[in-house]
Design brief:
By secondary structure, the chain is of the alpha/beta class. It has helices at about 20-30, 50-65, 75-90, 110-120, 125-135, 140-155, 190-195, 220, 225-250; strands at about 10-15, 35-40, 70-75, 95-100, 180-185, 205-210. It has 9 helices and 6 strands. The longest helix has 27 residues, at about 225-250. The chain is globular, with a radius of gyration of 18 Å.
């Protein structure tokens, strides 16, 4: 885990994949210009166990040092980590924003990869090339080759509840903190139908927003659109809190 980028943050970006850092940069630049946001990273070596529980404990160690609950943001597995943490420690979380996380939150790109490995008589590179199309849309040969290398590194070093031998299941459901779920209509990994199933778990004040286009990394392609939704959601939470405090005084 690495330290955050702001001493007194109001929000925390969660990252569980060093390989995917370039795809979060545009959105982070947008948010950095508008909020005091820190960045929390979790990485592991190939010899370490892939454990969401260990990552959650380390995240808790960081958040215990903060003087206030923070807005948490995460894409994919990082969002899953934020979801599990918010369920266990809602007092430390002011709100949770999930990007590309379905109502069955364990479903990530690696789950699709291992499913294809079991179903298709293809080598690893061929399957990863198909996953590239799922994640980023159709790409030329050079870009596809570069993205395959990124995915290979992610398989080795990133946190995931899945492996070649087992795909874990996470109990679906919401959280007892304000929740914003963002996805894309063009996402194959977490498709629109899977996102819509979140409505069964949303509480008053929670929101579901869908980008009109963009695959699984829609926040990379449309950082301003996604960023505006996040900042607006935060503002709405602050406004509701202020109104509640005023009502309490009367």
């Amino acid at each position: 885990m690495r330290k955050g980028m702001s001493k007194y943050p109001t929000a925390l970006w969660l990252n569980t994949s060093e390989s995917f850092q370039p795809f979060e940069a545009p959105l982070l630049r947008y948010l950095f210009a508008r909020a005091a946001i820190a960045r929390w990273e979790y990485s592991q070596s190939p010899d370490e166990a892939s454990s969401l529980k260990i990552a959650s404990v380390l995240l808790h160690d960081y958040l215990k040092q903060c003087d206030r609950p923070l807005h948490l943001i995460g894409h994919g597995t990082a969002g899953l980590l934020g979801l599990l943490y918010a369920r266990e420690h809602p007092e430390r979380v002011r709100s949770l924003t999930l990007l590309g996380v379905g109502a069955h939150p364990e479903i990530d790109w690696q789950a699709h990869y291992y499913t294809l490995c079991a179903q298709l008589p293809c080598d690893r590179v061929a399957i990863l090339a198909q996953i590239v199309r799922y994640l980023f849309g159709e790409q030329n040969y050079r870009t596809t080759k570069c993205l395959i290398e990124i995915l290979e590194k992610d398989l080795l070093h990133s946190l995931s509840p899945h492996s070649l031998y087992r795909r874990d299941r996470i109990t679906p459901g919401g959280v007892d903190v304000p929740l914003l779920v963002c996805g894309s209509a063009d996402d194959i990994i977490v498709n629109a139908n899977v996102l819509e199933k979140w409505r069964a778990w949303l509480q008053p004040g929670d929101e579901l927003w869908m980008c009109s286009e963009g695959p699984h990394f829609f926040h990379y392609l449309y950082p301003s659109e996604v960023g505006r939704q996040i900042v607006r959601f935060w503002h709405h939470i602050s406004l509701n809190r202020t109104n509640c405090e005023i009502s309490a005084l009367h």
